[in-house]
Design brief:
By secondary structure, this protein is α+β, with helices and mostly antiparallel strands. It is built from nine helices and eleven strands. The longest helix is centred in the middle third of the chain and has 32 residues.
Length: about 350
């Protein structure tokens, strides 16, 4: 479990243990929402970074304030509107729309400390989308959700990159929701579309009624078979043998999600200086190595991420490596200059 996931799980456990004792919005902020902001690396006690009760006046309407505004280099980047954990969020979206338009931020969060909804303006500039591009329940965190949240962390926050990802997530989530609804209770249009692929007669009301349970069951069977096939493939597949070139044999090597995420983070750091296609990795039993031109003689850095103590290895001009302890993947950014210097030395 990566450090961000561990921090969020701590909040998740706190919610399960204490929510019945939390009776006000202010208590919800203190117990659940402020720790969430902290987990992303922002200093909630620094008014130049996290501003509570941020002014969001609209025209002649004064006194409008959003609960929190996160700043980067003095510029508002995220607003957060908070409610008590027991409140439903649907009725508060209009309020968030007003704040979003006034503050000119790109990202807005509506939350009750348990349910989180992340919004932006993909449909029309400076107008809050009707639906969030990311939503989740803090008491039911998934690895993929933590991966998306990590992009909002202070050290790696990149508005352009998140906007690109938000567009993908918006349509992906919409399709997943739609298919889930249609699998459970397909509507007439859905039945007609798939029924016409297999039904030879005229698509009458009677035919639609008869096909409805069949199509619903077919989708359920398809999904179940897909899951079973994935599981069987995972059991049966044998790792492809790789040529040994100054690297240990693949037996016993487990490339983790944290290592892959670190690799992509390093590629992102170097994208303005080096063609990303030149950057690769090789995992060994001893370490996870990031290379230039897939060449062991051009190591960029090494990582040790499989224990409770994480380290990054940085190379000096003599190609000697020095290990540094890191607490989170975001700490890799602290070695941005050294990593770039190492790559430049190979040119």
């Amino acid at each position: 479990m990566n450090p961000l996931h561990a921090k969020l799980e701590t909040i998740s456990n706190r919610i399960r243990q204490t929510k019945e004792r939390i009776t006000t919005e202010e208590a919800t902020k203190n117990a659940y929402i402020m720790p969430f902001i902290q987990a992303l690396g922002y200093d909630i006690f620094d008014p130049l970074e996290v501003v509570p009760e941020y002014i969001a006046d609209i025209g002649k309407k004064k006194g409008e304030k959003v609960d929190y505004c996160i700043l980067k280099e003095g510029k508002p980047i995220i607003i957060i509107e908070c409610k008590n954990w027991s409140e439903k969020l649907d009725v508060h979206t209009t309020q968030l729309e007003r704040y979003f338009h006034t503050t000119k931020v790109k990202f807005a969060i509506l939350t009750n400390g348990i349910d989180y909804r992340f919004f932006t303006d993909l449909s029309k500039p400076n107008v809050l989308d009707k639906k969030p591009f990311l939503s989740f329940d803090m008491t039911n965190l998934k690895e993929v959700t933590v991966g998306e949240l990590s992009k909002f962390a202070k050290e790696v926050f990149d508005e352009e990159m998140i906007m690109e990802r938000a567009s993908d997530l918006k349509y992906l989530n919409a399709l997943v929701t739609y298919l889930g609804e249609q699998t459970a209770d397909p509507d007439d249009d859905f039945i007609k579309f798939f029924g016409n692929k297999v039904y030879e007669g005229k698509m009458t009301t009677k035919a639609i009624f008869a096909l409805k349970p069949i199509i619903s069951k077919a989708f359920s069977l398809f999904l179940n078979d897909a899951v079973q096939n994935r599981l069987q493939t995972a059991i049966d597949v044998k790792p492809k043998e790789e040529p040994v070139e100054e690297v240990e044999k693949s037996n016993g090597i487990n490339t983790t999600e944290d290592e892959i995420e670190a690799f992509h983070l390093i590629k992102s750091m170097l994208r303005n200086d080096i063609d990303p296609s030149r950057i690769s990795y090789r995992d060994t039993k001893s370490y996870f190595g990031v290379l230039l031109d897939d060449n062991n003689r051009k190591p960029i850095c090494r990582l040790w991420l499989e224990s409770n103590n994480w380290y990054i290895g940085i190379f000096d001009e003599k190609r000697e490596i020095e290990k540094h302890k890191i607490e989170a993947l975001n700490d890799i950014y602290n070695f941005n200059d050294q990593i770039k210097n190492t790559c430049e030395s190979y040119n």
